[in-house]
Amino acid sequence: MSETLQYIESYFQNELSHDERLAFENRCTTDQSFAGEVAFYVASRQALKDNLLQNKQKEWVESSIKDEWKSGSAVRKIYQQPLFRYAAAASVIILVALYLEITPANPQQLAEDYINLNYQHLGQKMSAASDSIELGIAAYNSKDYVKAANIFEVLNNANPGNAELIKYRGLVYLQLNNYDKAIAAFDSLASTKNLHSNPGLLLQAAALLKRGDPGDVDTSKLLLQRVIIEDKEGKDEAEKWIKNYK
Amino acid sequence: MHEKRLYSDYSYFIGEGCKKFHLSNDDSFSAYSDAVLSVIHNVSANRFDGRSSLKTYLFQIFSNKCIDLVRKNTTNKQQVHQTMPMPELLNQLPDQARTVIEQLMDQQKQAAIQTNLDAIGQKCRALLLLFEDGLTDREIADELEYNSAAVVKTTRLRCLEKLREKVQSLFL
Q1: What are the backbone dihedrals phi and psi of residue A54, each rounded to the nearest 5 degrees, phi first?
Q2: Contact (CB, 8 A) for A7 and B69
Q3: What number is the ipTM of this complex?
Q4: In terms of Cα–Cα distance, which of B45, B72, B52, B74 is closest to B133?
Q5: What is the pLDDT of residues A112-127, one digit of tens each?
Q6: B97 close to A (CB below 8 A)
Q7: Model pLDDT, residue A78
Q8: How far apart are CA B65 and CA A139, in angstroms?
Q9: Considering only CB atoms, which residues of chain A are within 8 Å of chain B?
Q10: Which residues contact A19 (CB under 8 A, 6 or more apart)?
Q11: Which residue of A1, A51, A57 is in closest CB contact with B157?
């Protein structure tokens, strides 16, 4: 076996050390006979590559032709009719509509939709005790959630038992995808007593579903069951979500 | 199997090559096939880092091949003698060495090698083509039932030597 060819191949396969590579490159410029061997090696590899490419091209083209043939040229003519195209487009729209209607949404999706529908925008309080709450709500509604979080955090520290502030704090962290803080806030809201309505449990379940850590789905299910049994705010929603658990 | 899938999934690039780079259908087809092969080799050699989608990656390589062809076609129009595209292997050499080697290669020698590929025997040719297709010596040993990768390497280099003997006079 030619040691020169082996040496040349080692270079092009990156098997030589740095110094050996330098020596190889130097030899190409100083040793005419060696340069001829390298030229042969490169030209052969290129010829083989061209050959390979030709074979592949032939194979791929034949395969495409076969595939086209299998799909049927007569049928293709029908596809090209404008009427067929309109009918196909209409069918796709109907199928998508049916799919959306029939396919049950998962609880995560339902929770996401619920938050988006009900808490994208917070109602302004005309008789709010503090202008700062209005500022926080305005920041929330303009999607400046970081600013809103700062405002609600400060207000919450000043009024630790204020259920409304706890809820806003939870919601803003939910929007910031800071689920741990959102869950803690909704847990605190849920344990606040003597409220006319308390969505704490449902919101906590929604935050758990959005976080999706191991065990979160099971915990959210338990919370939703509590909402139903204890007839808490969001009972209808909880019943809808719970039906979609696997 | 994967090659065919990749080839057929994005074969519409061929039409885009014709439109965007004003290439003939044959040239665009050639650039596209070459690009598919390069993508497969690069993915096999872990040179595709996944920062873009495979489609984007393929299109980038395809565009580069089209540009190479446009350059080659433009150069050829201005020259009496046809040049050949620079083999990719030459890119591994530094400028000075590359120039020396490039000067020793021309289309005539390339054609002589092509012709003699049939003369080295079907087995040799198949072995060399599998290596060119990106298979390692180990994989070739499994595919063609050789005893070991070392045997494949020895046989492969002997086949190359056989080819060299047939075209030796041209490279001296």
Answers
A1: -60, -45
A2: no
A3: 0.72
A4: B45
A5: 888 888 888 888 765 4
A6: yes
A7: 53
A8: 52
A9: 1-2, 5-6, 9, 11-12, 25-26, 28-29, 33, 35-53, 55-57, 59-60, 63-64, 67
A10: none
A11: A1
